[in-house]
């Protein structure tokens, strides 16, 4: 049986970590494409020379030619300019939409049967544009944002409560931006509601709410926090890990329920827009969108986030 093939479009910081993670997990042979001559070739040669030490055995290729992504099973797109301090994800839309158009054409013409995971910002707009240009069915084009945003939320909860990251379950919905919706009501530690544990810790419902509000706001601004600290570039370890979790679920047909930027067709009252929601990811890509009841406050926040997504997509005039 032939090995899976994973194509990475963009050889920057995220692309490098994606290649390393895919190789270490032996998810398949990896091809890294970038427009910069010799850069992807150098990165993949460096990674290949680590294989005897780390014990992975996959083919690693760097290229400047889209033809080399032919027959890819999964394509992960990171191409685009990263944020700089003071910039929002939305500030990148004009330049990155031109890059995404070119990338999507390359994928369409050379890997027509691939599943596509978009990481490039502004995420909700870029995945929308990618699907429009490729013409791929919606179950094969998705965006990575919810896994990352949820992981950040989970991290803050674990640190606050002094518990293992492994036992925290939390999720975000909506767009990948300041309007995202961390779901407080569903956040738990091994099934125990986080709000209940915060009340135990602080002995006050008011204080528990104050602490949770701070974690929610930090989650919304988490990407900007990293950008500000780095000063050049944006997050790359966590976005790469999040996209690999999605790719692995598809390639191994794991049926994991992961928050994914998927095309909604009536779910959550949204039709025709890519929005972050929990999805079952398997061999068919986005196999199912899991819809559940939101309370009035959550629905209002979700509506506000969807409104922001619609405005962002509308600004591209596609």
Give the helices and strands, then pairings.
Elements: E1 5-9, H1 13-24, E2 29-33, H2 39-48, H3 51-54, E3 60-63, E4 74-77, H4 93-110, E5 115-118, H5 123-134, E6 141-143, H6 146-161, E7 168-169, E8 172-173, E9 181-182, E10 188-189, E11 192-193, H7 194-202, H8 205-220, H9 222-230, H10 237-251, E12 256-265, E13 271-282, E14 285-289, H11 296-314
Helix pairs in contact: 1-10, 4-5, 6-8, 7-8
Protein described:
The protein is an alpha/beta fold. It has eleven helices and 14 strands. It has helices at residues 13-24, 39-48, 51-54, 93-110, 123-134, 146-161, 194-202, 205-220, 222-230, 237-251, 296-314; strands at residues 5-9, 29-33, 60-63, 74-77, 115-118, 141-143, 168-169, 172-173, 181-182, 188-189, 192-193, 256-265, 271-282, 285-289. It has a six-stranded parallel sheet. A three-stranded antiparallel sheet has the order 7-10-11. Strand 4, helix 4 (93-110) and strand 5 form a beta-alpha-beta unit. Helix 1 (13-24) crosses helix 10, helix 4 packs parallel to helix 5 and helix 6 packs antiparallel against helix 8. The longest helix has 19 residues, at 296-314. The mean pLDDT is 96.
